[in-house]
Amino acid sequence: MGKRKNQTSEFNRRINQRILAEAGIRRLSARDIARQLGKSPSYVTTRYNETVEWLPADIETLAHAWDMEPEELIARQNGYQTKPSIVEQQLQDVLRRINAGDLTLAANHDLNKQAEAESEDDC
């Protein structure tokens, strides 16, 4: 008899897609995820392959490692919107400032500018 793949729930498949997407955004391999979880790479691979479901503790650990709440990781994948993550809030703030014409974001803050202006050139 051939080995039959265990079927995970649709909810787990959605969570897995979200974890894969977040890992891809962060350019994390299964080995990197395993390190974050304190597990083996094969542990992560079995979840990526959907032969075993992700544990709630895994989802919580990964979410916190990625500066988000576990609810955000779950809600986004299932079409629910929660508060934006810290990174998303910072990005929205920067975009709002740029759209408002705030050019201080692009300004070069040179700590030596005043000293250079006061010094004499040797030319």
Helix and strand layout, with pairings?
Blueprint: H1 10-25, H2 30-37, H3 41-48, H4 56-65, H5 70-77, H6 86-99, H7 113-118
Helix pairs in contact: 1-5, 2-3, 4-5
Based on the model shown, name its key terms:
single chain, mainly alpha, 434 Repressor (Amino-terminal Domain), 57% helix, 0% strand
Tell me what the structure shows:
This protein is mainly α and 123 residues long. It has a domain at 10-82: lambda repressor-like DNA-binding domains (434 Repressor (Amino-terminal Domain), Orthogonal Bundle), CATH 1.10.260.40. Helix content is 57%, strand content 0%. The protein is built from seven helices and no strands. The chain has helices at 10-25, 30-37, 41-48, 56-65, 70-77, 86-99, 113-118. The longest helix has 16 residues, at 10-25. GO terms for molecular function: DNA binding.
